[in-house]
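Q: Structure tokens for this one, please.
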Amino acid sequence: MSGTPGQLYSLQQGRGLAAMAVVLFHLSLMMGLPRYLGHPLFSEYTWRGNLGVDFFFVLSGFIIIFAHHRDIGRPDRLRNYVERRFVRLFPVYWLYAGIFCALVALGFGSNATLPETATQWLSTIFLIRLDKFTFPIAPAWTLVHELAFYLVFALLIIRGRLGMMVFGLWMLVCLLLREYPEYHDQTPWTTYFSPLNLNFLIGMLAWLAWSYGRPVVVKWALPAGVLLIALFYALESRGASYSQVQPGYAAGFGLIIAGAAALEAAGQWPSRMRLLNLIGDASYSIYLTHLAVLGVVGRVVFRIAEYVPAPPVLLYLLVFAGTVACGCLAHVWIERPLIAACRKRLSRKSSLVAQRAE
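A: Here is the predicted structure, written as tokens:
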């Protein structure tokens, strides 16, 4: 396997591409606002950049089973699992959310709002949807799905058979519900039983295909996945609804992930692409901060453009590059040190607990 043990560069690179796709999707919409260009730019190419979220969910299913499949049915491994998931999800989110809420309270941000009720604040802090509202950091709605998956997977670790029954029942209800609410209409019911949660299962199945399939066959999953994505993209472009084609997109992403992992395991993947690897590592920071940073960078770039005229395409690229660069800097200067400090603290605490137990 390429890279360090337990690491797949291809998946990190895919994560980086997905994060940039989401940024491009929102940037094209932002350009349509009167204070910028007044019309969307490149929207005919980026209108499905939000599929990066679908990719993130499929990839999460793959990564969790990849990292923790040996923990299933071993309750003694629960603490390690919970600590790893907690450190990866919450500290960085809490810091960014705290900064964002403080800025909104001080009057910054034209469209952002703060939670208004106790349940909304609880939802914001603990990423458990208790109400129908928009999170201060808007992309955090996806983290609610992630946390739900993490909690159900924890049951697999505590009691394997019970966990499988609960996970299977959860997937069945999500499959039968088949309801895709609009962003501002998400409720606890439509969140926890959204068909989007099936993406986690597809990611787990992709891991099974990669782990136990014949490598010579699994390698072909990548081009097959690309063709499948192109097929359903064409169907949606010709009038099919997102709810009709979404499972096809997820299946395509699962094939791409399994195929990329197989190629890397065979040493046939360009793993040393430093910039893309960095963007992949920084994808969480990019994803959480990009909406706010797009607005700030956009205002700066367009203010400069008042004195130094530039074509719209160049302005678009400058805002995009600046937003991704800010996310990478946040990862290097904030996210990475914070996660390292949390892991060090938890490791020290675990050592003390072990010493006391002796």
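A few notes: The CA atoms of residues 36 and 211 lie 48 Å apart. The chain has one domain: 9-351.
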